[in-house]
Each structure stands twice: as C-alpha cells, then as structure tokens.
Amino acid sequence: MTVSSRSAAREEVLARVRSAVGDSSAVEQSYAQVPRGYRDAGGGERPWEAGAPQTVALFLERLADYGASARLVDASAAPSAIAEALAGRSASTVVVPHGFPEQWRAGLAGVRVLGDDPPVGLDALDAVDGAVTTAAIAAAATGTFVLDGGPGQGRRALTLVPDYHLCVIPADRIVRSVPQALARLDPVRPLTLVSGPSATSDIEMKRVEGVHGPRTLEVLVVAAEPPPEDHRPIDDPAES
Amino acid sequence: MRTALFVTCFNDTLFPNTGRAMVRLLERLGCTVDFPLGQTCCGQMHFNTGYQRECVPLVRRFTEVFDGYDAVVTPSGSCAAMVREYHGRVAEVAGDSRLAAAVRRTPPVYELSEFLVDVLGVVDVGAYFPHRVTYHPTCHTLRMLKAVRQPLALLRAVRGIDLVELPSATECCGFGGTFALKNADTSVAMCADKVRHVLGTGAEVLCATDNSCLMHIGGALSRLRTGVRTLHLAEILASTEDEPASAPRTAEGATHR
Amino acid sequence: MNGTTFLGMPAFPRAARDALGDAQLRRNLAEATRTIRDKRAEAVGELPDWEELREAGRVLKEHTLRHLDRYLLQFEERVTAAGGTVHWARDAAEANRIVADLVRRTGRSEVVKVKSMATQETGLNTALEQAGVRAYETDLAELIVQLGQDRPSHILVPAIHRNRAEIREIFRREMGTGAVGDDPADTDALGDDPHELAEAARRHLREKFLRAEVGICGANFLVAETGTVVVAESEGNGRMCVSLPETLICLAGIEKVVPRWQDLEVFLQLLPRSATGERMNPYTSTWTGTADRDGPREFHVVLLDGGRTATLADPIGRQALNCIRCSACLNVCPVYERVGGHAYGSVYPGPIGAILGPQLRGTASAVDRSLPYASTLCGACYEVCPVKINIPEVLVHLRARVVDDSRRRPLPRLEGLAMAVARWALSSPRRLAGAQRMAAAAARLLRRDRPIRRLPGPLAGWTDARDLPVPAPESFRTWWRRTHP
Fold it and tell me: Where in this chain does the record put each LUD domain (chain A) (predicted)?
C-alpha cells in the first residue's frame, strides 16, 4: 500500500461521505440537541454519594448475579480477608502490580508475590495462581469495575492470563451507574470494564462462566473507614 | 360529528358481514356513519409489495373521498396504519405537493376499537356472545397503531363471553400480505404455530381486528377441519341476544351468512 | 463490489424452504431465540429510562452520520497523535489488501482474531489465507463455525444453529486430528456439557494467544473526540487479542464512529442488554493508540466504506447504518426464528441483514432482490431495536427499489401485471364493483359455496396449506346501496 493510494482512498471515501450527506455545518449546535433524558447523563448531579451503603449492596448483589464471589469487609479486616481468599484457592504464587495499597499487603504474607517489575513473561504469568489488584472505579447497577492500569492495577495482561483474579476495591470508588463511572475515567489510558468472570452464551444461548479470561473472580469491597493512603478521592475532577 | 366508514376493498369484497356488523353496532351506539361510495382501497398491498407508484391514484382517491369528514372508522388495523404512516410517503415519493397537502388534511382514521374506546368513550357496547373466544392482536394494530388495550377491554365487557388468553399472542401469524405467496413455506410454518396456540386454548372462536390475518389463520383452521371459527371483533361486538352473530364460518360451514 | 453473499446461495424463499425442513435446526433456533428473548426483556425491563436511552442512541447515530466526514477526520487525527495509524479502504478488497500487507510486514504467518462482523463482511480470512496467513478465530461461536467449515448464521452467536451435541462432534473431530493446530486436548473424553465445551475451547486456544504476535479485531465503537477504540465481548478472547500481541489491526466500518467519550454511557447501556440480555457484558476493552508498557507496540485502524457511503446517500435507507450489531432484531423475528441465518445468504442475517445487505451490496443478485421480501412487516424488530431503526419502513422502501429496477426490464413480470390490473380496478369504485360482481358470478358459476381448496400457479402457495374464502355473493357496497337508498 503506497502512501498515494492510501490518501486517494481517504479522499474518495471522504468525498463520498460529503456527497451523501451534503453540507455538514453546525456540528456543535446539532450535538447539543441530542436528547439526554436518561438517568445520570454526563455523570449526573454531584455529589454522587459514592460508596453509599445501598450502592455497595447493589454492587455486591449484581456481581454475585454474574457468578463472582463478592463481599464487604472492614478496612481493618482487609488483609485477613485477602489472605483467606488466597488460602481458599490454595494459591502459592500471585502477581500483584506496583502500587497495590501498602495497608493491604499484609494479606499477601503467605504467598510468593511477583511484582511485574521487571515484567513477568506470558508463560510465567500463565503459571501463577492468580492476580491481586485493586480497581479505578466501579458501577453498582451493572456490577462492573474498571481497571485503568493505574496504581495497584498494572498492565492488562496481569488480570487476564491468570485463571484467578482477586480485586480489592475501596467502597468509595463504587458509584451507582455506568454514566457516573464513565465520567470518572480517562479514555487515553487502556481500560478494561469487567463485569463478572469470563463467560459465554455461545452454546444454545445459555450463559456459562469461564472461558479465556479468569474463570474465577473474587471481589472484596473494603468499607470506607479509614481511607487507604493512596485512595484517589472520587469527587476530585482533576484526578486521573 | 360526521363519521365515514372506510370498509376497505378486502372486506367489501370478501367479508361484507364485518362492514354490516360495524354499521349495526355503531347505529346501536347512536353513531350514524356514512359510507361514501367513491371509496376503494388504501393502497397497502401495492405499497407493501414495492409498487409505490401504483399507490398514487389510490391515495389521491382516498383523500378526495374522505375530505370533509370529522373522522374515518375502519375495521382494519393495518389499513388504518397504512393511511396514517405511509400516505404522506406516497405523496412525497410522487413529488406531488398538492397530494401531500391533501394527505395532511385527511381526517383522523381510527381502527374500530380505537374509535369505540378513545373517541366514543364506550367500553361496554351491550354485546352478548356466549362463546369461548381467544383474541389474536394483529401486528399492525399492536405495533403500528399501538391499540393494545382497547380490543381486549371491549371483549371483556361482552356479556356471556369466555375470553381466554392466547399463548404467544403477539407473535405474527405469518400472513404479511404478499409474503404469504412469495414466502409461502415460511408463512405456513408461522401459521402452524399460531394454529397450535389457538387450538391449545380450546376456543370456539378466534377474534382479531383484521380480516386479512383471520383469513390466513382461518384458512389453516378450515383446512385442518378444526371446527374453530374466525370472527372479526366487529361481529362479536355487534352480536346481541336478539341478533346473534350469524352462522359460523368454519371448514364446512358456508363463508357467507 | 463490496462484500459478497455466500457463494451459490439461492434466493431467500428457496433457501428458507430447505431450512424449514431441518427439524434439528428448527428446534435449536426455537430454543435459543426463546432463551435470549426472555433474557433481553428482563434486562431491558429493569431500566426505567430505556426509552430515553433509545432515543438518545438514535439521535446520536443520526447526528454522527450527518457529520460523518468531520468525525472521521477527528478520529484519524487523535489516533495518529496517540501513536496509531489510520488506513482507509473504499471496498472489501482494498481493506483485505491493507490488512494482508500489514500482517506480511510483521513477517508472521499466524494471527488471532476477535469476532468481527467487518472482517466477516470482507471475507478477510480467505484473503489472508491466499496471502499465506492463517487466521485463528477465537470467539467460541466463531471457532465452532471455523472448525465446522460452516457459515455464520447469527450476528452475535454465529453458531446459534448448532446445539451442544453437534458442537461436541465438531470439537471431537477437529481438535483431535491436528488439522487446525496441535492441541493436546483429550477430545475423545469430551462431553457435551457447555462448561466442558468452553473448557475445550480454552485449552485449544491458550497456546495461540500466548504466542500470538498479531491480533485482528473489529470495533463496536470508535470515539472521535479521543481516538479511542471500544471492543465489547464476553469470553476474554477479545482482551487476549487486543492486549497480548505486538501488532494490533482493527478493521471497522466508517459508521462505527461516535462523537464523544460521554456517548458511550448511552451505547454501553443499550448494547449488552439488547445483545446477550446482560446488564453488562463481562469484558469491554477500550484503548487509544498505543500505550507505554501495556499492549501492542504497533496499532492500525482500517476504516471501511464497503457500500456504507452509498447507503448513507439514501435518506430512508441510511438509518440501517445506526445499527450497533446487537442482534435483538434477529432474536425476535418470527421469520428468522424459523429459517435461521443461512437462508439470508450473507453474514448479516435477519431483519437487519435484510435491509443492510441489499444496501451495502446493491440489488443485482437474486438473493439481494429477495431479502427485502423476507419479512411479514410485523414490526417486532423495530420494537426492540436499541437505536430505533424502523426496519419495516426500510424494507418497503427497498421493495420499491427492487420493483422500480424490474420495470426497466423488457418483459413485464406476472406480478407487475397483476399489480397493474389491481391498480386499474381499484382506481374507480365502478370498476371495483364490476370486479366484485364478476368474482361473485364466477363463484356462482362454479357453484362454490365452500372455501377454495386449490388454486393454480403462484396462488397455489396459499392453497397448498390454507383454504381461501370465495368472494361474497353480495359485496358490502351493494348491500349498502340496497339498504341505504
């Protein structure tokens, strides 16, 4: 493919578009007229009451609906809950990305921890017993949490190749709806929205959990008090 | 209020009893209807089959014939939908601005159940029909007119009726106008499922707001000698103790009464 | 020629007749579509603002298409700034050539693919094969289709026509022989439980993911404002393909662009509930160009026209480009439910396929001329469409196109003559009354007082299975005239 034929195709496609739709003026005005009568458009009104008890309860319920095991723990009990979860999997080696909150690390005492620094190779990653991360934000209504590669989340392969993912999420990162969550994300970063363990409905349209991604997903929601040190406040628009 | 009856070419020719029942019913309710003799067809068959050009004279005639009435009432959900949704399109495609203006002036066209419930404000029309009946909501009545509750409300108010729910009622019967010929195999496959559901109800009578769909399902019910008859909503609503709905229309029964 | 119908496909009615005779297919489809219809209804019923979301989705798509040139340029600029490369393809052949060249430049002969309608549409796998590149489909249903040397029959679940027993047979046959790789799965012991089948697919593809150097994907959405690509999926195969290989190539139709990141708040609510009936699909990946220390080093987007601009030029037909490929219209379609996807003759089956295919490809072939008629116009598709595509409206519009094309032929068709006669008769009440009298007289002459059981020619399609009433001895208008002098 030469540059000239590439640009010829580009010009021709654009010319066809223009001839099909006519003059395309007033883009901004027309965009502003998109009706947004649905709930929480643009993230909705603040404050969002992220981490409100009913929001957290909804999040846990929706996750469980999709076959993830999910529970709420007190901040002080977070390390022991992590240790329990890993013991329950008989995990001996886990990958834990850089920036995983210090106050939770005590829960990793019983396992060998790979820090992904230098990066763990794919075969080694395939051999670990699981990945332990936190998440950037979560939307209760759909049981979704979002990994944005930030502190304690790591690159995308870490939470994909291992068969087990333990995600520890501070309660105040849980908002109610999808619009509220999207409004808090930076689209330039590679993002993964996770809603339950990997699944398929490809056989007779019946949902089966566990295909290529982690087949077991466990979520610990850590109650808001006291806030973890690296916790990014949810209502700070400058964040991310 | 000057109300005109648009009987539709199909009912005019094949199911005149439906039109007669409508006249009887509306007169009983104190509503005098006029039948402008210049009327023919709404153009639906042509339009839906792709013969939009052929619709132009039919649409023009429709606008002329019904011009000046306050309302038009018709025993066909799909013909009412054709007039409401697509007469403007026909004029537009023809590039005929005078016709487009005439279409905009067309009085509101109501399917019978809409007219009774929404315009006349009647639910109990004083009908008597002591039979087990199931109701099939035809697609255009259901999805284009969105007349969901009116026919059922009218039927529920009929004295003596044993109205039973039709399973998978909202699924198309497979008629689809020329679809029934162009895709006869698929059409029959759909009809077979509809017939199965109708028979499952144990109803003697299948009722709907379109005789075209009833002709389709009824054609299969008749071929299979099921003994289930089809009746347009108008004929059930027109039925009284003194003047019951006329002779049954089943496999061996005469089509005409 | 943009994209093709499956080779040697007969027109819809013939293909449908064959499908209707396949008892296994009928059973599989009825089961699967009922399951997904119920799930969708439940997921949609949960949202009190569903109608507002649909309206926002529709207007957003219409707005984007109206200003498509601007948004495409903006998308190109942002992708380029983020380290990616944008290519433009006028048609399927050009798109395939671009992708094959990009793969060849990496020096690799294997690629892993996420399910993508655009690559199905262009026949990319065949083009890659001709260029010496083996493409591995990684979506479970696509894998079933690929291993079974079959054709996709559904947009979202291409193997919907297969049940678990058939899938097990395909897996046992193909995974064990080494014909499609050297998988060690012990296929003889494979059962037909969906969990086991999913496990077999996991083992079969694991190695391929881990050593893949080139990934190929489509896109659910392209965000113009940021240059972001969005891929929604369930199994994790998509995440594997877009984040593990060194090189990632995305082939997407130009209509996939949306103006802003915020707009995803509409589409990411509409899509999963309409598609799989889930509140949210398990995984949605979004990325912008390339990222430091995460994912592919090289990223290409190929923007495909492939008949889309021609579709865009039609004011009524262009709404087909609103489609977000959810498949809700297929799942509720009573025609699709009975005949399945293969009868539609191309990768886009069902109601959306019946309006998209003939527009993307034109109406030159018998299949494409028959597709606009493959519907009863019942409107169930329009009712569930998350972006409110009025499919029945487009169907009748395309029927008019087919009829107008046929008018140019030297010999008139029987149907055309019948329609002309009907128009003549219906254009005057006198003629209509005359026709009614003639019909009634004919009925009397033949002494028909019972329904008609047999008709000749094309009308036999009706009477093969259904009786037909005879015209009334007295039409309504005659009765009216007699009783209302």
Answer: 127-222
